Amino acid sequence: MHPPHGSEMSNPMMFDMTPGLNRERPQNFIRDSDENKRFDKYPKLKQLLELKNIIIKKRSTPARYINCDLRTFDLGSLGTKFDVILIDPPWKEYYDRKIHNLDLLNSMHIENYDLNGDINNDRDKF
Question: What does the pLDDT look like over 2-15, one tens digit per residue?
Fold first, then answer.
């Protein structure tokens, strides 16, 4: 692919040749990627985006995790409710790869743990 010549360069209907010249795919170039300039032509959308960003900054919290042993750690001591409590035990597929042993999971008796008091939403309790 060769660069356009003469009058083709000034033709506003000519598509952008940059991706082809750089041997990159056009989908690798994101249009209006700068968030501050993206909605300059659309003031209502720009205002909506600004308001949304303000709300997100006020309400969002960074993701956190605790690597702990549920047999000994009291989640209630943290003084907060959780949206998600993710337990990643040694699943059978891990066992099949001979990385972990299922005896640990069976000996934990997860069904006996009362995590319901530490979950934020009643409908998500198990």
Answer: 555 544 455 554 55
| Category of 65 on φ-ψ map: left (φ > 0), alpha (ψ -120 to 50) or beta | beta
Range of the domain at 106: 75-124
Q: Does 14 share its domain with 52? A: yes
- Give yes or no: residues 51 and 16 share one domain: yes
Asked if 38 contacts 44 with a C-beta cutoff of 8 angstroms, the reply is no
Q: Is residue 2 part of a domain?
A: no
**10 Å Cβ neighbour count for 109?**
9
Q: Which residue in 54, 125, 113, 112 sits closest to 83, CA to CA? A: 125
> pLDDT (tens digit, 9 = 90+) per residue, 85-116?
777 766 666 666 655 556 666 676 666 666 65
What domain count does the chain have?
2
What pTM value is reported for the model?
0.33
